[in-house]
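REVIEWER CHECKLIST
Item 1: Sequence provided? yes
Item 2: Single chain? yes
Item 3: Sequence as submitted:
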Amino acid sequence: MGETISLVDTRAQPGWFRSQRLKLCFVMLFALPLAVLFFQDFAVHRPQAGWQLKSGRVTRREMAKTALGIKRPLLSVRIDGTDQSVQASLASNAINDLPERVTFYYSGDPAREVFLQEETNPLGIGLFLLLGPLFAWWLIGRFMQSSAPHSSSKP
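Item 4: Structure as written out by the authors:
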């Protein structure tokens, strides 16, 4: 008489959740290193105190290989009011989506790469790649706990 009737068959769920966690582990093998790369990109391009907000005109768009052999879009931008040019290496294939006029924080060193204000912020992508799989891991764990059969200690 003290038995609870459930409309959901909980015997099949723990195995399903385990298989989902295995898939999630595979996703995390790729997501976490990518998150680290995006965090590193944010740290390198973060404007520091004393940098000025400048604008300029894109003079060249090309695909260039990085030190690791990965192709990335590279822009050359001529700073307004000067004859100096700076380089901006983009994180995605948005090379043709950017307007001709761009803004960026400039350190005063034309050899240092700049981060365009029109680019997607790598911090947001890094946080999504880090927190998304961790949240899914936690959520699956919560469902596994709630679907586990509970033992009753009634006399």
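Item 5: Key structural point noted by reviewer: The two ends are 12 Å apart (CA to CA).
Item 6: Recommendation: ____
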